[in-house]
Amino acid sequence: MDAVAATGRGPTEAELEELRSFGEGAAVSGATVRALVVHHLSRTRAAWPAGTTGSDSVLAAVQRAVEALCEGHERAELLAVRHQEAARREFIDDLLYGSGEPGRLAERAERLGLRFSHAHVVAVAEGPVPYTEGDAVPRLVERAVTGRFGERSILLTTKDGRLICIAPGDRRQVLTHFAKQAHAATGGGRAAIGRPHPGADGIAPSYEEALRALDLAGRLDLEDPVVHAADLLVYPVLTRDRQAMEDLVRTTLGPLLRARGGPEPHLETLAAYFDSGCVTTQAARRLSLSVRALTYRLERIHQLTGSDPADPRHRYALQTAVIGARILGWPAPRT
């Protein structure tokens, strides 16, 4: 400070960088910004030149020095936050993909309140746009869930643009509330809940089940905003032999490709008819058609395919073929 008062020069860039490094080191050692500033100002007072000449220069130098100290402190804090975020993301990826060493996973999970002595369930929600952890929607959902159930034993995060909730298997109300809040916050998005699985390696299969349920719900055009993997187990069974399902769809529904306007209206009619319990009035209401128009479509399907949707002997094969067509994306979109 004596040099500043005598010459009027400010601190050099090298001196400022030295102060930034000092501030960074202070942050690493646990010193607060307040303690750092008080320390520097006390040293400034001790070095303050006698008389008033050069006061403005000294005060300007003090300001720049304090700014440099705070920049270094903030730089260290930012690096620490990034390191924590990277470690948390690595942990979440290990959990969801089952790629971590179980003992190490359990140790890290316990710090977040997850105890692998309990079975856990994963719920996944998606909306019209992808989300990241700092976005408003994930924060809103997290506040709603933790505000009601607390933070212990619950992990909320994002992955691949979707919202994720991990909770103990015996706390299904947490997942239901998460799904409800996600549905509202995403403007009508859909959530899927996996099945409970025990152990550190049980979260990955529950996550995969939830993802598959979410995909199936979209392919089947299910209306429910929340789907449970346990309720959709029949569909993977139906498509386990993909070649057999493709043969069934092609053989049973292939003749609809010759229909005027393509097969889509007839597939839509069959889906609505079966989803309505084969009640023509309800199916017609779903499609905004008259009963007469719906009946005509069903007769036309009978003529084209040789299978009568109203005949129990034909119904099962037709319904299974319609489900298979939805899952397989048949017919493929025209290019």
What does this structure look like?
The protein has 14 helices and five strands. The chain is an alpha+beta fold and 335 residues long. The chain has a five-stranded mixed beta sheet with strand order 2-3-1-4-5, with helices on both faces. Helix 8 links the parallel strand 4 and strand 5. The longest helix is centred in the N-terminal third of the chain and has 43 residues. The mean pLDDT is 84.
Shape: elongated
Query: Helix- and strand-based class?
Result: alpha+beta
Number of strands: 5
Please bin the fraction of helical residues.
Answer: 55-70%
Biggest sheet features:
5 strands, mixed
Q: Total helix count?
A: 14
Terminal Cα separation, in Å? 76 Å
Short description, anyone?
With 335 residues, the chain is α+β, with helices and mostly antiparallel strands.
SSE topology sketch:
Elements: H1 2-7, H2 13-28, H3 33-47, H4 55-97, H5 102-111, E1 120-126, H6 136-149, E2 155-159, E3 162-168, H7 172-185, E4 190-193, H8 203-219, E5 226-228, H9 234-238, H10 242-253, H11 264-275, H12 280-287, H13 291-305, H14 312-328
Parallel strand pairs: 4-5
Antiparallel strand pairs: 1-3, 1-4, 2-3
Helix pairs in contact: 2-4, 3-4, 6-7, 10-14, 11-12, 11-14, 12-13
Keywords:
5-stranded mixed sheet, 335 residues, alpha+beta
